[in-house]
Amino acid sequence: MSLVSRLAEKSWETPGASPAVGGSDRPPAAKVVLVLYFGVAAVLFGLVTSAYLMRMGMPGMGHGEMGGWRPLAEPPLLWANTITLFLASFAWEAARISARRGRQAGIWAFSAGLLGIIFLIGQLMLWRELVAAGHGLRDDPAAAFFYLITALHGVHVLGGLYFWARALLGLGAGPGVALRIQLTATYWHFLLFVWLVMLGLFVAT
Amino acid sequence: MATIADDLTPLHHPKTWIGKYVWSQDHKVIAIQYAVTAVSVGILALVLSFLMRLQLGFPGEFQFIQPDNYLQFVTMHGMIMVVYLLTALLLGGFGNYLIPLMVGARDMVFPFVNMLSYWVYLLSVIVLVASLFVPGGPTGGGWTLYPPQTILEGTPGASWGIIMMMASLAIFIVAFTMGGLNYVTTVLQARTRGMTLMRMPCSVWGIFVASIMGLLAFPALFVAAVMTILDSVAGTSFFVPTIISMGEQTGHEGGSPILFQHLFWFFGHPEVYIVALPAFGIVSDLISVHARKNIFGYRMMVWAIVIIGALSFFVWAHHMYVSGMNPYFGFFFATSTLIIAIPTAIKVYNWLLTLYRGDIHLSVPMLFAIAFLFTFIHGGLSGLFLGNVSVDVPLSDTFFVIGHFHMVMGVSPILVIFGAIYHWYPKITGRMWNNTLARAHFWITFLGAYAIFLPMHYIGMLGVPRRYYALGETMFIPDSVHYANMGITIAAGFVFAAQFLFFTNMIWSLFRGPKADPNPWGAASLEWHTPDTPPAHGNWGDKLPTVYRWAYDYSVPGAPRDFVPQNEPPPAAGPGDVKP
Hints:
The complex is a heterodimer.
Chain A: H1 3-7, H2 29-55, H3 76-100, H4 106-132, H5 141-169, H6 177-204
Helix pairs in contact in A: 2-5, 2-6, 3-4, 3-6, 4-5, 5-6
Chain B: H1 17-21, H2 27-57, H3 67-103, H4 111-130, H5 161-189, H6 202-233, E1 244-245, E2 248-249, H7 257-290, H8 298-311, H9 327-355, H10 364-387, H11 389-395, H12 399-429, H13 435-461, H14 479-512
Antiparallel strand pairs in B: 1-2
Helix pairs in contact in B: 2-3, 2-4, 2-14, 3-5, 3-6, 3-7, 3-12, 4-5, 5-6, 6-7, 6-8, 7-9, 7-10, 7-12, 8-9, 9-10, 10-12, 10-13, 12-13, 13-14
C-alpha cells in the first residue's frame, strides 16, 4: 500500500478491513533514524550556509555590504583533506559491497576509519595553518565561519568514528553486520557530500 | 539493530531500584522523569512571573526587585516556559508516555537513546538554573536573546549569564534531537498490527508532526547559540556590528544582528506550533472521549496538523516587522501568516462540531478542553491583528503582544496539559484524583487567566510598553492602567495559589486516591486497554494487541457499549481479515 493510499484511508470505515500492517514489511529502524538524521544535519548545514551568505553581504540576502569580509585562503591541505575524505568514503563503499556479498569487509572498514582519523588530523593542521597565516577568529569573519563549519562537520566525523568503532567491534557477530556496515558507509557518504557542499561554498566565495 | 517494536527479547529488564526508576529505559518512567523535571523548573518560572507582577502591580513596593532583576525574571520566565516546560513536557512527557501505548508498541524503538535524552535534558536544566548563581546572574536580554544587547556590558548577565543560557539551549537541543528521532521513528516503525497511520489518535499525530518540526527547527537555535557564544567569548563578529559600548569601541566589526533574528525566529515560530500541535492533538482526543462522539473530520484534522506544521516554516519573519524589511517580504510573511489561519480555523470548527449534539460529560478534563477553545480562539483572533504589518508595528512592543501570546501559546497549551493530566492520571497512577479540588483548580485557573490576560490587551492598545520595569509619570498612560495592573497582579496571586490545589490533589491522590477503573472514561484508544493499570514494563504482556478500527468509535449505533475499543475485533470476521 502506497503512502498516499494509506493517508487517504477512510479511517471510520475500516473495522475488520484487512488491518495487515505489521512490522515485517518495514525497513530497519536504524535505517529510518539515519535518514531522519540526514534531514536534521542538512538543515543544520543549510542554515550555516545561509548565515555565511548573509554575513558576507551576498546580494539578495537582505543586507548589502557588511564590512570586514575578505575571502578565505585555500591552502593545498584543504584539497589533501578532501581527497582523504573521498578515499574514506571509497573504502566504506568497498566494505559495504564486501559485506553485502558475504566477503570479509574488515580491512576496508578498518582503512575507512583510519582515513577518517587522518582527515580529522588534517583539518586540525589546516586550522593551525590558517591561524598562522593571520586568519584569526576575531577579525576575519570568513575564517570564523570556516572554523565553525569545519568544527560542526568534525563533530559529525567523530560521530562517524564512533559508529566505525561499533561496526569494527561487531564484525563477525552475526547477521546484523552487513546492515551495520551499510548504514555506517551511508553516513560517511553523507559526510563527504556535506563536506563537498561546504568546500564549494568556501571556494566559490 | 535490535529494536523492541514487536518482541520482548531485547527489552531491557532492570534488576535494581536504580535501574527501574533512575537509569530507566522504560518510556513511562522516562516520561514521568521528563514531566517532573519540566514542572519543577516551570514552578520556578511561575514564581518569577509573579515577582514581575508584584513589581508591575505595586511599583517600588518590593525593594528586592530592581530593574536588573526584573529583566532577568522576564528572560528566564519566557525561556523556561517556552522551551524547558512546554516543549519538554508535551514532547518528552506526553510524547514518551503516549506514543508507545497509543500505537501499541512495547517501548520507544531506541530505549537507551531515550534514557540518554532525558539525562541530557536534565543537564540542560541544571546549566540553566546554575546561571542564577554565576557572577552577574542570569541573562536579562529578553527571552529572544537578541545580540548585540545580550552580550554587551550594561545588560544583566552579559558576561556569564548569556553564555550559560546559550550553552543550556545547545545541550537541550542535543537532548531533544535524541528524543525527537526516537518519537518519529517509533511512530513510523513500531505501530502494532492494524495500526495504520490513519488510525492513530490525533494526540499521536500532533506529537509526531511537532517532533519532526522540532528536529528541523531546533538546529537554527543551535547554530545561533554557538555563534553567540563565539561572539561573546572568542570575539568573533557573526552578530555584533561595529559598536561603541560604554564609551569605547568594541573589537567587533560588521556582524549582523538581523542574522541572529532570522535564525532565532526560524526556530522561534515553528516552536509555537511545536507546543501547539501536541496540544491540538490531545484536546481533540479529550473532546471526542468526553463528548462520546467521534472527532469531526478526522482526516481534515490530521491534514490540518500537517499543513500547519509545514506552513509554520514560512512565517518566521512576522516576528521581525519592527526590525525593518523589504516591503515585499513583509507582504509575503503577512500573507503566509494569515493563510495559517485557514487550517487552524478548520480545527476549531471541527472541535466545535464534535461538541455539537454530543453527549457532553462535563468532567474536569472536558472543562479544560472547552476552556482551551475559549482561550485559543481568543488568542488566535488577536493574532490576526498582529499578523498584519501595519497593525503590528504600533502594537509590537506593547502589552497587547503579551496578552496575545500568553492566550494562544501560554494559557491554551497549559489548559490542555492540565486536562491531559486529569485525563490520563488514572492510567498513569492507577488512582483517581479528588473531583472537588480539581474543579476548584479549573475555575480559578480559567477565570483567573482571563482576569490576567484580557486587561493586557486593553493596556497594550493604549500603548503601554512591555519589558519596562516601571512606567513612571507618563501622559499617555491613564490611571486606569495602574488599576488594571493592580487587578492583574491580584488575579495572578489567586491563579498562583490555585496551582497548590492541583499539586496537593496530584500528590495526595497518588497515595490516598481511590483505585481507578482501568478505563474510567470509556475511551476507545489503545492505551486504555493494557492488561495492567498502570501499564507494566513492556506494556502489553506476552502479546501485542491487534488494531481493527480507529480510535473514535463512540456511540456507534447497535454497539453494546457507547465505545468500541480499537483492539476489539469486528463481530464477524470476513475472509482476508486479520485474526487476533
